[in-house]
Amino acid sequence: xxxxxxxxxxxxxxxxxxxxxxxxxxxxxxxxxxxxxxxxxxxxxxxxxxxxxxxxxxxxxxxxxxxxxxxxxxxxxxxxxxxxxxxxxxxxxxxxxxxxxxxxxxxxxxxxxxxxxxxxxxxxxxxxxxxxxxxxxxxxxxxxxxxxxxxxxxxxxxxxxxxxxxxxxxxxxxxxxxxxxxxxxxxxxxxxxxxxxxxxxxxxxxxxxxxxxxxxxxxxxxxxxxxxxxxxxxxxxxxxxxxxxxxxxxxxxxxxxxxxxxxxxxxxxxxxxxxxxxxxx
Length: 281
Prior knowledge:
The chain is of the alpha/beta class. It has helices at residues 14-27, 40-45, 57-66, 69-77, 87-91, 214-233, 240-245, and strands spanning 2-7, 32-37, 48-51, 82-85, 95-96, 102-103, 110-114, 131-139, 153-159, 161-165, 171-177, 179-187, 190-193, 252-257, 259-267, 274-278.
């Protein structure tokens, strides 16, 4: 049995990560035990370790040090595969500009920078910060975790800060949002990503129809929660037949929240803001 430890220091999408791992295990017919824990002994016994993170880096680093998670991560990366996600990736770097400047773990050589208040796209249009939504990841070099993942696949991002790596040889993936930034890093046992794989039930190709399965919908629901209230306030109704027929037109994804009678359509090519809402089925 594969035992995967998700490090719990109170600052990660722990439930989402655990459920996504269990889902993948079922898909692959693998026996997987997922443990959410801060116990160093349990993590030491695990085959693989997930180092998640969300929120402000100052708060994350405070909890990491208070709970001795820095030593736990240091020990883990010397002996087993470690996947760092979002702020978990940023915490591995030397320092961050966030919160007036915060010293990070320094396990990887690089800094965490702010996108800025006047970020512009190639067309000169101002871009929203945080960078939130689906975006393409261009694979910079081969890595086992890229196996069977098409280049330029879409993954889900939500962040205002990005990693600037000092060693370009570590960069395994980049994304463009105003300019190119590091989306994935690899060094020895570490694979770190700025995007949220636990919020991506499968990769997206705009040229391929995506099956709308109940499993994928359930996996995606958890991150829809924080924008559902906004969707309720900024939406218009649409007949079910019309919405169904255009379910995946123009890189859009149908999602449900709560029940099939509360359905939202999101633009997965540019952002996760809702564009339509179905009031009844």
